[in-house]
Predict the structure.
Amino acid sequence: MKKRLYPLFLLVWLSLAAWTTPPLARATLGESADSVESDRRALSGVRRAATSRDGYTVHEAVSDANSVREYVSSSGIVFAIAWNGLSHPDLTLLLGSYAGEYWQAAKQTPRKPGRRSLQVKGGRVVVEKWGHMRNLQGRAYVPALIPPGVSLDEIK
Amino acid sequence: MKSNKIFFLLPLLLLLFGCGGGGGGGGSKTLVSIAVTPANTSIANGTTQQFTATGTFSDNSMQDISSAVTWKSSNTGVATISAAGLATSVAVGITTITAASGTITSNSASLTVTTAALRSITVKPANPIINIGATQQFTATGTFSDNSTNDLTSQVTWSSSNATVATIVSTTGVATAAAAGNATITATAPASLGSISGATTLTVTVPAGTGAANVLSITVNGSLCSSAFNASYPNKPCVSVTVCTPGTSVCQTVNDILLDTGSTGLRIFKQALSTPLNQIAVSSGALAECAQFVDGSSEWGPVQSAAVVLGGEPAVTVPILVMDSTFGTVPASCGTPAASPADAQLNGILGVGLFTEDCGPTCVTGANNGMYFACTGASCNGTTVPLASQVQNPVVHLPVDNNGVLVQLPAVPPGGTASASGQLVLGIGTQSNNTLSGVTAFPTNASGDFTTIFNGTALNNSFIDSGSNGLFFNDPLIPLSPSGWYIPSSTTTLSATTRGATGSPSATVTFQIGNANTLFGSGNDVFIELGGSLPGVSGFDWGLPFFLGRNVFVGIEGKSSNLGAGPYWAY
């Protein structure tokens, strides 16, 4: 599994030229990190960095709209996504097979006027959004996929 | 004898005439007797006692003649007495107080000066609320170790914790209100009585209907909010804004506009607009925007040019978002936009936040910004937008008062109130009404965030947002309701440190969190102690309760004032 992740480390563009490279796909929650490569429907994101942490790896992709961070377990599964920026990313794409239950739960979650945060709980996935104009933030995670010893506080 | 008596009484009768007093109204009545009260009293050494002389006249009328008699203390080593009847203790002992006029002498009143110690001071009235410009007389009552009480108003030293809000005459206890907010009024006894002090909170509010050209009234709930939406949505600050077709006198005034320091630009629902506005075009079509507000929805619609009138200021022409969920095809990333004022529980949002444009340079160069779209027919695609075509803060375009705003809202008592009134003052340091001393500016970063240190953790995504209706943060020790409101068994006092994004300055903010279920059940709508959780781990959202009883400045990026260069928060 680690072998699959390895090519991702090569996809680190640090130069400004990286901004003009063709759109890059993003990984999808609950799927293997390979979905980064196989999914070419993506929003225009530029992969900036991959950071190894204890028990997982964080891959960051930056676009005009936001910065999206994918949390990939040592077994190669994307167990969480976090983002911040001008706008929230298209969750239908990022949530993959969890998108259906998310949108269904979102419809049943009443709007909360006056709140600047939202938590939507599907059967398996949790999506949280907070922040304000110019710095909208959020995260999505599948509790069942979070590796042992990893705290929710690390997903940010 | 008789003529002698009249001779002595003449000054007294003249005095009564001069004051328009005298029960009989004539000059024939004569003084028969004098009664001094209190007849038997004791005071602690170091304090005073006011005596009253009541005269009874030949026509059976009675009158306070305290300042017309001659007062005497039998033992001036125990207490002296002034011409007005105020006895001042000198040493422990007993003295007799009498009042005389001519040949008539009062009863003997006994005054005992004791060794009792001052235990506490009570300041009254407790927690008064007065308008700017009004005065308030405070009194201080001391309670002593022998359970006696004594008026210490003229013996204590009066002080105000916030001279910006209210000043107080140190010797008399008369406070004058200068600006909206809170001041702690303290009465401190002299060292001879043990330097004990007592205090209360004075709240200063803005009188309705008074406004300079750079002022908009705010009601938190109340008359400027739509009554249809009030019941379900506490701590909602509303203003009224006039929008006109640019270049014409075709205008309308829209109320129930949320005052929002957390966003930038004016957004109004199509259903609330009857005035035609001018669609803004970009090279690839009609400009539209998705503004995401994180409360479970988003706002979508065309961007149009409107002449906006704020208070008594000249109209400024700016792009605004006309919220219309039926406009074109809503991009997938925009989710489900609010469809109507009833859906969003407001007619619009006036964003007077830290920035000129809601997006800024990123949207000038990047088409996939997620905010701006160009629509041709029903098809809408991400687009770049020049700064001048982006939805923007109308304040920036005012001729003078363009470097920020000041939000002034009154404190509300524990348990809340039905509504509260305050004002939005345009400009910072540009007029006398937006120039305040004792204010500290906290610079933010380019995203509009500064730092809050709470429970030992530095939270770098902290912001001050009048559009948030509570204080939102994470404290695992406070019980939470299923809907994310804090519900402690009793109101709890907490504190945090706010810090500029540059690392300084720092200031402590003390706040209270009450039981939201109790508050919501009270029938009130404005609460200073309302709080809830915030997902994520790095934020603190200082919502509307932060504004209650404070002067809060929003300094706009790229502008400067006497408080510094924006973007900053100041309070």
Observations:
- The first strand of chain A starts at residue 46 and ends at 53.
